[in-house]
Amino acid sequence: MKTAGLHHITAVTRDPQTNIDFYQQVLGQRLVITTINFDDPGTYHLYYGDYTGVPGTAMTFFGWLNSVQGKVGSGETQAVAYTIPQNSLNFWNARLKQHGFSPLRIESRFGQDVIPFIDPEGMRLELITAENLPDIQPWPDSPIPEEHELRGFYGVSLWLDEVETTTRILTDVLGYEFDGQEGDRYRFSVPGNAPGKIVDLIHKPNTAAGIFGASSVHHIAFRASSDEQQQQIQQKVRQMGIHATQVIDRHYFRSVYFRTPGGVLFEIATDQPGFTVDESAENIGKKLFLPPWLEPRREAIEANLPAIRRSLPQEVTS
Predict the structure, then answer these.
(1) Which of 276, 272, 269, 278 is nearest to 248 (CA)?
(2) Dihedral of the CA atoms 271, 194, 216, 85 (nearest 10)?
(3) What is the maximum span of the chain, computed from C-alpha positions, in angstroms?
(4) How far does Cα 1 stand from its chain's mean position?
(5) How many CB atoms lie within 10 A of CB 37?
(6) What strands lie across the sheet with 58-63, from one edge to the other?
(7) Beta-carbon-side half-sphere exposure of residue 39 (alpha carbons within 13 Å)
(8) Among candidates 195, 236, 207, 229, which has minimal Cα distance to 9?
């Protein structure tokens, strides 16, 4: 019942325009979909990724304008990591500095170089070099030269008071394998060449709970190759005594959610139908998408959303 890895990661922004400017202009990720939070239609839900937002590249944000400032703590995602080519370390170090995002000291982790830095609202991001690069669909209009573009997610790091229960979910339910340990960091991975293969569990006993808000990761989603696999995972989670939701239609995928005993909200999302279910790859993201059941309310919904600029400015230099 192996998953292929991460499907998407969803976090919180209280400034959608700053969010767009950073993830699209600085990191060079395409704004694949602009929609609303289906459970909270008065707020944006922004999706970034490669050209079509294939699973393992999609970083998404709920635009909750009145959020307090988040602070990471126990039971939360501590960092989101992207993959970069080995020869791109200097490029990204210089680019981040050029745009005012001072990288922290380069780290070495499991034999790979890591550039840690903080996004505009305080979320910890990491760029990790890899020799065997995942398959993605480069965005032709990215401000980043194709040879240096992000290659989707590398993985996530979770801060946990204890790692045993989350280890069971990763290995027994999602098919991850234990790769090794460095200090308090336990690494798990799935085979294959898809982006988003790594989950690191960081043992942080007696760490205080965080403050949920802007910069916090709301949930991490894992891939289900089919509805049948999603149902199998749902059943196995329930057999462990953990509550898992019914299947929820998210239009671009179908979702099941459950909160791990360690505190992190997991989602199981289907690969199908994908972000091109309604429009061609060239046209996705150019207008506000509303699901069919909210389309009759478009005028009122758009009137309550803050104005945003989706397109790249004319001059973005590397």
Answers:
(1) 269
(2) -150
(3) 54
(4) 22
(5) 16
(6) 30-37, 40-49, 58-63, 6-13, 217-224, 265-270, 254-259, 248-249
(7) 5
(8) 195
Give the pLDDT score at 315: 41
Distance (Å, rounded) from C-alpha 18 to C-alpha 13? 9
Q: Which residue has the tokens 């059943």?
A: 235
| Residue 78 token pair | 């501590």
- Three-class secondary structure of residue 297 per DSSP: helix
Q: Where in 50-111 does DSSP place strands (E)? A: 58-63, 76-85, 107-109
Residue 296 is classified by DSSP as G
Structure tokens at 301: 């919904």
Provide the pLDDT for residue 313.
Answer: 57
- The low-confidence residues of the chain, meaning pLDDT below 70, are 1, 312-318
Q: On the CB side of 197, how many CA atoms lie within 13 Å of its CA?
A: 18
For 3, the token pair is 């998953």
Amino acid at 141: D
Task: Give the pLDDT score at 312.
Answer: 65
Q: Which residue in 223, 233, 166 sits closest to 1, CA to CA?
A: 233
Nearest-angstrom CA–CA distance, 291 and 36: 9
d(CA 268, CA 239): 16
Tokens of 70: 């988040």
Q: List the one residue out of 190, 187, 222, 215 whose CA is nearest residue 203.
A: 187
Give dist(CA 152, CA 57) in Å, integer: 4
Q: Which residues pair with 114 in a beta bridge?
A: 107, 128
Looking at residue 50, its pLDDT comes to: 97
Please report the pLDDT score of residue 314 as a whole number: 47
CA atoms within 13 A on the CB side of 143: 21
